[in-house]
Amino acid sequence: xxxxxxxxxxxxxxxxxxxxxxxxxxxxxxxxxxxxxxxxxxxxxxxxxxxxxxxxxxxxxxxxxxxxxxxxxxxxxxxxxxxxxxxxxxxxxxxxxxxxxxxxxxxxxxxxxxxxxxxxxxxxxxxxxxxxxxxxxxxxxxxxxxxxxxxxxxxxxxxxxxxxxxxxxxxxxxxxxxxxxxxxxxxxxxxxxxxxxxxxxxxxxxxxxxxxxxxxxxxxxxxxxxxxxxxxxxxxxxxxxxxxxxxxxxxxxxxxxxxxxxxxxxxxxxxxxxxxxxxxxxxxxxxxxxxxxxxxxxxxxxxxxxxxxxxxxxxxxxxxxxxxxxxxxxxxxxxxxxxxxxxxxxxxxxxxxxxxxxxxxxxxxxxxxxxxxxxxxxxxxxxxxxxxxxxxxxxxxxxxxxxxxxxxxxxxxxxxxxxxxxxxxxxxxxxxxxxxxxxxxxxxxxxxxxxxxxxxxxxxxxxxxxxxxxxxxxxxxxxxxxxxxxxxxxxxxxxxxxxxxxxxxxxxxxxxxxxxxxxxxxxxxxxxxxxxxxxxxxxxxxxxxxxxxxxxxxxxxxxxxxxxxxxxxxxxxxxxxxxxxxxxxxxxxxxxxxxxxxxxxxxxxxxxxxxxxxxxxxxxxxxxxxxxxxxxxxxxxxxxxxxxxxxxxxxxxxxxxxxxxxxxxxxxxxxxxxxxxxxxxxxxxxxxxxxxxxxxxxxxxxxxxxxxxxxxxxxxxxxxxxxxxxxxxxxxxx
Amino acid sequence: xxxxxxxxxxxxxxxxxxxxxxxxxxxxxxxxxxxxxxxxxxxxxxxxxxxxxxxxxxxxxxxxxxxxxxxxxxxxxxxxxxxxxxxxxxxxxxxxxxxxxxxxxxxxxxxxxxxxxxxxxxxxxxxxxxxxxxxxxxxxxxxxxxxxxxxxxxxxxxxxxxxxxxxxxxxxxxxxxxxxxxxxxxxxxxxxxxxxxxxxxxxxxxxxxx
Lengths: 734, 210
Fold this sequence. Notes:
Chain A is α+β, with helices and mostly antiparallel strands. Chain A is built from 18 helices and 30 strands.
């Protein structure tokens, strides 16, 4: 099916199953520990040997010599994979650095060997005996020092590197009120709970990989390319994924090395990347330097806005597109954005939840707070005044498909009690706590991706859906089941959903908050095809048949799905692809974050006291799981504001705090109850589901609301994230 | 640890590499544990896991976590960091929750261990498991067994009058959401279902807000 005209009324509008806050259908498996994750497939590979990765101890250079003698003689060792014996390997299209390094070394902790042994303990002990002599080379590790060497990066998901409209310089020079500031955000780690893990087994030249991966088809393709074997010979199975946030978008070292290890030792091999290896071995969200200039009139109406971003990556890598939202969020006839990329020899930078906007809004929405203060306009009102109902770079001929930012701002402010905020900083006290409120707009692009599924009815009238879509905690199982149940007129418990297997039709996968809308639209397409088949079999015109209560009805005639499917069952497969509605219309999701913090007057400890927001993201397919996505993302925004930073050792080129004790993320005690309101919206230009993404919207702007609340509480404006106690105390003393 | 563990250790030492001799509520294929490795002396360990006795011959470096996951194939207990930093491996040993990655299996000879599989099954959920489903107290599910084992223990700890960092009156240890947040802070949820987890625990404690 092709979606190239706005959706009219369709079976999803019934809202009998879709839009209802159902419990997750995979819930019982998850709460009882019976959902088997990648490393746990004793059923599939009962005799798997254990692999342990040896990572590089330098950031750049060469292996001068590698001595495996002691490791090979260590108890239980079955084999050791290195570049010298792995055979010819290519690099996947989505990988920046090679997953198995040597003799060239591209980054610290790049995998250089896999030690395979009969037990986990033996593999780990033997890995410590691998001796590598290095010939190190100088590298570049300091973004700030390299800033002036930035070049125009290649175009990625974020669109062109640079954009402009009107005459920014001229308009900014003349503006009555100006904000001009530079903000910095650090490297961040996904820190998903399940480490990257894979079990590989070969059967002749056929490889099966039980793994933890967000994008099955991408990664099958990259495994095929890396090994130089046909895609058809590779099967990926990834039904449960213990978190991703972008870290598992790509083929990683666990998958490749498990495959190589299994080939070498002639039996299945399981590999997990050890937690302390993850931040340097895998990808991270790159640090940014962001310069923002806004020129407005005395009422805060923006005439000129500019956002420039610098970030770094390995040679061949990409930029952190942090100016993306600034192209679409606020009015202003004179504008420019620019991204510059510098070469750094740190580990590979790549997508983490809401790449671009998550850190872009940490800067832009603080700049807006600064503008509000400079103009003496309430921060909510300032954003309402600068709302724009079309793409401000393209002009009124490119309207938004739907845009309810103002509704979110008003509803969120009401619910939070924003009118109780004292606009003057440092005025409100609660015992030893300085109390402040802050807010920020939320914005995240809406992407749609081609997605396929097959759907069948068996002789019992039960419905089965198969797609290589993944559920990384996002609730895919449940919303796909809801879609199938709605389309075929059955109850949710009549639907079985099978995900994450490369033998199933290729889906959009989980990334860029496109997964929910795109994958359910693919199920919609397959279900429409099945409805046609069922109606034909019943002898009813397909456009008149009604699907309800397990029946296909026309007028007062009806037949059961079970009888029509027969003992053989009846299946249909299709995919949804997209025309140019995303070119004709700007498509995005919107929201407003509100936060109240307390800052200890002596220690500068920051506590989140209250947090809430209102969000518009098209049809909310399952309000229960969608709310969980939003509060989870808000929490990650709190992490970005207050604590998360990979600290770079600029001498040796690695992230120093590379585990879950030293890379701090929010815990229970950091997070109060969070309030989420979904503003009613249907977006008929996004897909037949009339939904948009919601998985990343919640992080976009959340951290800025925290930063603005800290300013309101203390009068201290910090522009270097995270906003830690040491920085607050230093500013307080100054 | 029971007082007769030395005797029992002696009894099982030198026996054939033994597996769980009972199904342990694990899948029916719960097969022999990994064979003894060449050159690594094995140690006999007896545990009572989810109410059933199991006898293992283990490499003494084996953590309790890996004994459960790799040898007994009770993979409900998760390995998130293997360094006591995340809480995903939380199990209940002798009535107290611990990080099973931070303790060697041989240190628990004779001990009773309760894992997530011992609390309930999909068709017969423990009230805490049920509450996590109803309140959506999870997303990816990987920290969930640890959260649930911790949550069950937290309610026991409060009932037993064990104070925490946020207890204001040491003589009156009582349930509160702040107590829950403090006591659960060793269990990281990166999907950050925290707000929902607190709701689930409050529900089980009979403290649900109307």
